[in-house]
Structure formats: C-alpha cells, structure tokens
C-alpha cells in the first residue's frame, strides 16, 4: 500500500510541476527533490551531496557526445540543398508506383533518417520540399500530411538515432547493436506505409493525379545522380561503424566531417550556414543533455524511494504473461506520448520499465526498438506531438487536422509493433548476425 | 534592471560561443583520434576524458542562452489556455521553481568545486587534469542560468511572456 502511495505521489508531483509548465529538466529535479524530502524525510543537505557529484558525472559522460554531433549534421543538411536533391532524385523513381510522388515522403524520410538522428530534422527537411511540390500537383493533402508525419518519425528508428543513444546510455546496452536492430523494423514500417498509400491510391486514383509529362529513363538516371550525396553519407556513417573504424559515438564526428566536406565541395558553405547551424545544434543538444542529466538524478531518487522495485513487485503480483506486460506497457507509453516528447518519455519511464522487462525475459535490445517505436507514436499523438507541430508550422493547417491525417499511419505503426512482438527476430536478426551473441 | 539585461546578454553570448567552440573541439578531437588509430596505430589517450569534459561544459555554459531562445522544452498545455496577467503569474511561478532548484544545485556544485580546488584533486587518468576546472565550468554555467532566470522574470513582467521556440 505504501509503495503504491509513493508511486501515486510521484505521479501527482510530475503532473503538478510539468503540468504547470516548468521546463522538463527543472521539473525532473524538483520532482526528485520534493519526493525525497516529503516521502522519506531525506535531509536537504544529503540530497545536495548526492545530487552535485551525480550531475557532474552524468554531464561529463562521453557517450552523449554523439548527440550534439548528429544534431549538427542534421542542421547542416536542413540548411543546404540536400532535401531538394532528395525529392528530385526520388520523384522519377517513385512516379510509376500507385500513389506516385506520395512515396517521396516515405522513401525520402527513410533515406534521410539513415543520416539524421532526429525525427524533427527528418520531418522538417523532407516536408520543406515535398509538401509544396505535392500540393502544387494536386495530391491529397490528408495523405501528404499523414504519410509525412508517420514516415518523418522513422528518423528515430532507422540508425543513427538520438533516442537509441539515450536508451543505450541509460540501459547500458550496445549502441551499435541497437542501431543494427532498428534497420529492419524501420524498413518494415516504411513498407507498411507505402503499401497503404498504394492501396488507397488504387481505390481512389484522385489522391495522386498523374503529371502532364511522365518521367522517362533519362529522368530516372538523373534522379539516381541526385541521390549520390545522401547515399554516400549513409555509406560513410554506417560504414564507419560496421567496418570497425569508428564507434557509434565517433561515427557522428565522421558524419559531421563528411557533411562539412560535401557542403564545401558543392560551394554551399557560408559563414551564416556554419555558425547558425553550430549555435542551433548547441541549443538543441543542451536541451536534450540537460534533461538526460536531470533524469539520472530522478533515476537515483526513484531508487531511494524504492519505486521501481515496488512497482515491479506490484505488477509481478498481477501474474501477467510477458505479452500481457507488453500490452500494458504499450498502452502506458501511448498515454505518456500524448503529453510528453520522446526523450522525456524514455528517461522518465526506464527506471521503472526496464527492470520489469528484464525480469519478464525480454531482450533489452528488442525492448529498445519497441520503446523507440512507442516514442515514434508519441511524435504523432496530440496534444503534444512534435511531428504534428512541425507539419502545422510548415503548412499552417490546424494541429487536430494534421493529427487526423496521421491516424491511419498511427494504426499502421501499431500493426508494426504487433508484428515486432510476434516476431522479435525482425529486430534481433541483424544485430545477432553482425555481432557475436 | 536594464544593466542586468545588458550584462546577461553579453555573458550569455560569450558562453554560447565558448560552447560552440567546444562542439567544434569535440569533432576535431574525435576525428584526430580516429585518424591516429586507423593510420598510425596511436592514440591521444585522452579522448573519452576530454570529450566528456567538453560535453559537460558545453551543456551547462549554453543553458542560459538556450533558455533565452526558449528552446528548453516544457508541457505548455496550461500556457495555451491562459493569457495576460494569469500567464505572467504562472510564468513567474515556473521561473521561481526553476530558480530555486538551480540555486540549490549551484550551492552544492560550489562546495564540490571549493573542495576539489583546495585539495588539488586531479583526474585518476594519465592526464591528471585538475577536476576543479570542470566543476568551475558547470558552476559558471549555473550562475549564468540564474542570471538569465532573473532577467527573464523581469522581462516577463515588463514585456509579457515570450512564445516558446518552435521545434526545428
């Protein structure tokens, strides 16, 4: 009873501080400190003595260095002609499929996801060019927004992925394995999206009207040429990891250097591009890193309050089957995703959910992929859904309308989760094949 | 109060450029390590350590500037329903809570810094880096953040609550 009371009070504290609008990192520190003082009478002096060294240690953790570098890489690509080349490259290749250029949203996002670690960067970069092009050609707005919202979130699943690095650091599992585990589920979800677009387009051809001029073989060849820079970056970043030249954290530096060289060679580098992207990357990574640092303290505080152990015991007492546990966790994450964004969901829930998952016999690498898909769902669920905000910002369409357009893609992602749960090998086959078990 | 805003602007800008420089340094050090390891079978023997220090310093030194640009995330459901004086009161309440916890943290980081400085504590690595340097960077970042919170509170009262930045 006492443990449930403590968990309930913590939940109330989270709702109070975060609901009031306190910035997430400060909210996490406040929840932890208030909880320790009022629930177990821990003296403030002791809390301070635990908090200070823990925060210094978390802040100087070398693993999180990949985050600012992948963000910088994304920023560099966002402000150059990379997205434009992506569309010009993909449109002649996808034109002959049912749904035509709607697939540029999906394939473009999947490809861009392979060089960017962020869902926001993927959605913004791909959407910046495809939304206006598809709208000009009279494509269905609902399918355009929905497919972009859904596919944009693949930035988190297809490696490199910032959320996966965060999960890897917190769960102490190999980031290289996590990256490998995200590839096939990412392709599977992209295929589900493309399949859906094809079915809808075959049922109603008006959603993807034909162009006056059909692209020919020459256009397809030019298209391939436009995709070379992005393919080269994917090859360099992922190749450096899996050839053993660089660790996942180091690969971020390789990616930044390769992107900088490419931008200089294509004569797009200006003082503004360099400094604006640099400062913007520092801002975004500060926002993420400081939440991670605060979450490390929250995790410690939860340990002192015995919340993970007690919640695990309470759920254990329910005698749920492993699949029952996964269903409960999926519902829990979808609910969290309505109000929190990805990093916060990951850092706040892991101290409780990870021990449960491990006790139930799930592979932590598999759970990392499951969690990332849950975070992807959070990106497209209102009222707080970052991809929805981005599309709203790009189009001026009300958020609920964008959210409605994303509903079929939300359902498809749920089907993806079911498939992943039924066939864990979808995630585990590639890492197990690439690395020794 | 205008002096506070100006001082805050100057030191905040200085700190963000130091942070940006640290990000460039991180990329350079890691690249150097990869080149040395791959082509010369050598190492800087300090990459994990120095990149860790740089990332910690970068995070805390950019805390204030990131806040000024409204890039720290929060759940702003309440903020979307309130306007005028209520919005200012809620903003001040959020700033007060954040100020309180930051001040608390800064106090204990200062204690750690003073102890490491007086004892001459160095890292247990080959480089034997004085630990107070990293404590100091984190402490300075927190002080700048406190200054930014004071400035933001003043600006919220005088000019109203600014909008949070959109996700980029």
User: How would a textbook summarize the main sheet of chain B?
Assistant: none
Rounded Rg of chain A: 22 Å
CA-based shape of chain B:
elongated
Rounded mean pLDDT score of chain B: 93
* Largest interface chains and counts: A-B, 70 and 60 residues
| Approximate strand percentage of chain B | under 5%
Q: Which structural class matches the secondary elements of chain B?
A: mainly alpha
Helix content of chain A: over 70%
Whole-number count of domains of chain A = 1
Helix content of chain B: over 70%
Write the element-wise H/E pattern of chain A from the N-terminal end onward.
HHHHHHHHHHHHHHHHHHHH
Count the DSSP helices of chain B: 6
Radius of gyration of chain B, CA atoms, in whole angstroms:
19 Å
- How many strand units of chain B? 0
Strand-residue proportion of chain A:
under 5%
**Overall pLDDT of chain A, averaged?**
88
Describe what is shown at a glance.
The complex is a heterodimer of chains A (437) and B (168). Chain A has helices spanning 2-20, 24-40, 44-59, 66-78, 82-94, 102-113, 119-136, 141-152, 162-171, 175-203, 217-242, 248-265, 271-304, 307-317, 322-339, 342-359, 364-379, 386-395, 399-422, 425-434. Chain A is mainly α.
């Amino acid at each position: 009873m006492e443990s449930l009371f403590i968990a309930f009070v913590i939940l109330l504290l989270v709702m109070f501080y975060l609901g009031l609008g306190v910035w997430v990192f400060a909210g996490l520190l406040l929840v932890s400190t208030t909880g320790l003082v009022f629930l177990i009478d821990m003296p403030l002096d002791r809390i301070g003595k635990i908090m200070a060294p823990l925060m210094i240690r978390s802040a100087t953790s070398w693993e999180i260095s990949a985050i600012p570098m992948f963000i910088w890489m994304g920023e560099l690509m966002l402000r150059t002609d990379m997205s434009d080349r992506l569309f010009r490259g993909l449109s002649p290749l996808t034109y002959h499929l049912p749904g035509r250029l709607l697939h540029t949203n999906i394939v473009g996002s999947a490809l861009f996801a392979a060089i960017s670690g962020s869902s926001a960067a993927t959605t913004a970069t791909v959407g910046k060019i495809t939304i206006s092009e598809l709208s000009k050609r009279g494509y269905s707005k609902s399918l355009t927004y929905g497919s972009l919202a859904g596919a944009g979130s693949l930035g988190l699943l297809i490696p490199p992925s910032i959320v996966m690095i965060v999960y890897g650091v917190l769960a102490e599992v190999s980031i290289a394995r996590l990256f490998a585990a995200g590839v096939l589920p990412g392709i599977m979800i992209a295929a589900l999206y493309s399949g859906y677009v094809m079915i809808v387009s075959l049922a109603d051809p008006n959603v993807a009207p034909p162009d006056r001029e059909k692209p020919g073989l020459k256009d397809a060849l030019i298209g391939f040429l436009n995709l070379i820079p992005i393919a080269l970056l994917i090859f360099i970043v992922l190749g450096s990891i899996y050839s053993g030249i660089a660790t996942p954290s180091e690969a971020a530096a390789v990616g930044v250097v390769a992107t900088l060289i490419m931008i200089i060679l294509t004569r797009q580098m200006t003082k503004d591009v360099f400094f604006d992207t640099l400062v913007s990357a520092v801002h975004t990574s500060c926002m993420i890193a400081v939440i991670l640092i605060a979450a490390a303290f929250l995790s410690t505080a939860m340990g002192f309050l015995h919340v993970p152990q007690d919640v695990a015991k309470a759920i254990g007492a329910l005698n749920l089957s492993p699949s029952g546990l996964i269903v409960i966790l999926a519902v829990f994450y979808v609910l969290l995703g309505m109000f929190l964004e990805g990093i916060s969901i990951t850092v706040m829930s892991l101290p409780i959910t990870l021990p449960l998952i491990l006790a139930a016999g799930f592979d932590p690498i598999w759970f990392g992929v499951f969690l990332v898909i849950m975070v992807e769902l959070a990106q497209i669920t209102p009222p707080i859904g970052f991809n929805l905000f981005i599309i709203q910002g790009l189009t001026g369409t009300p958020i609920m309308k964008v959210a409605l357009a994303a509903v079929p893609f939300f359902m498809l992602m749920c089907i993806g989760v079911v498939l992943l749960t039924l066939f864990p090998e979808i995630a585990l086959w590639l890492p197990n094949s690439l690395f020794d078990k | 109060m205008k002096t506070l805003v100006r001082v805050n602007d100057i030191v905040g800008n200085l700190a963000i450029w130091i942070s940006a420089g640290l990000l460039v340094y991180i990329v350079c050090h890691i690249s150097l390590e990869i080149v040395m390891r791959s082509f010369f079978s050598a190492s800087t023997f300090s990459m994990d350590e120095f990149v860790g220090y740089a990332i910690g310093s970068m995070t805390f030194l950019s805390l204030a500037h990131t806040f000024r640009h409204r890039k720290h995330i929060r759940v702003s459901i309440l903020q979307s329903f309130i306007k005028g004086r209520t919005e200012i009161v809620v903003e001040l309440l959020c700033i007060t809570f954040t100020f309180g916890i930051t001040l608390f943290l800064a106090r204990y980081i200062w204690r750690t810094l003073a102890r490491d400085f007086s004892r001459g504590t160095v890292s247990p690595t080959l480089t034997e880096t004085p630990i107070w340097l990293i404590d100091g960077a984190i402490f300075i970042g927190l002080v700048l953040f406190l200054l930014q919170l004071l400035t933001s509170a003043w600006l919220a009262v005088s000019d109203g609550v600014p909008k949070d930045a959109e996700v980029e």
